Amino acid sequence: MRTGAAKNFLFMSFSERRGVQPRCHGGVPSGSVPEGDTIYRAAKTLDLALSGKQVTHFETVLPKLARVDDDSALRGRTVEHVSSRGKHLLISFSGGLVLRTHMRMNGSWHIYRPGERWQKPRVDMRIVVATEDFVAVAFNVGVAEFLASENISRRSAVSRLGPDLLAETFDLEDALRRIAAEPRAAIADVLLNQRVVSGIGNVYKSEVLFVCGVDPFREAGALGREILETLLSTARKLMQMNVRTGSDRGIVTYTGFRRTTGRSDPSQRLWVYGRGGKPCRKCGTPIQRKKQGADARSTYWCPQCQS
Questions:
Q1: Which residues are catalytic, by number?
Q2: The pTM is what?
Q3: Which structural domains are found in the chain, ordered by start?
């Protein structure tokens, strides 16, 4: 097991070989935040561990979840599948019940063997879903709610999301229509708007705009269709680069630092994000950093390459 795990966001995951007991390992580096690729990998790992298994124990400190469990017990239900939509993680149980969680900045899901010592204190526990083989624990999740499966696509936060950049099929035309509805907004803010496209966070926002040579402060309505298509295809490509699915050996949710440059050296893994004042990897111009948007999120860009 690695040490020095992330203080902001951590997934304990496993790599499984047939006949070999899975081991917990991994985590997102300190300072990283959950974006669509992180949630996607987490959902894949939870699905591998829990899908098809009967719940033997459910526990929560969240009153709204506890009331649902009191009325319609989770114990005895089967975990049908675990999936992601943008930054939302969905655990579907038999009987048409879905647990939706959103990690915000500090939440995490861990996977353990029964009886294994947790890597975070119990006071941080919010949800436990246990089967005979594994115990999935949610720590400090920002949002958690039970939904009826038929309401997911109609009356939930998930129903309001834009096209998911990591979905098997991506609705480009829908994404373009949603961008067109925000003509006066800066393109960096538009990419972060989960109702336009879902999955992009602050890291990918800056990285995608740099790779495409687009000024992050330019109004979305001033960009032509070709540039917008390039932005979306680049975002999809970069996020897919950071999602690794296994074969019969299982799924590893995290194999190293998030990369957009394609370089193996961890110190050269990103083009601009987190590199304020350092030289651009392409032209040498100092990378700029500025707070942007209603939430004052940091944007990093090269004034030369993105002019």
A1: 34-35, 87
A2: 0.81
A3: 13-160 (3.20.190.10), 172-242+272-301 (1.10.8.50)
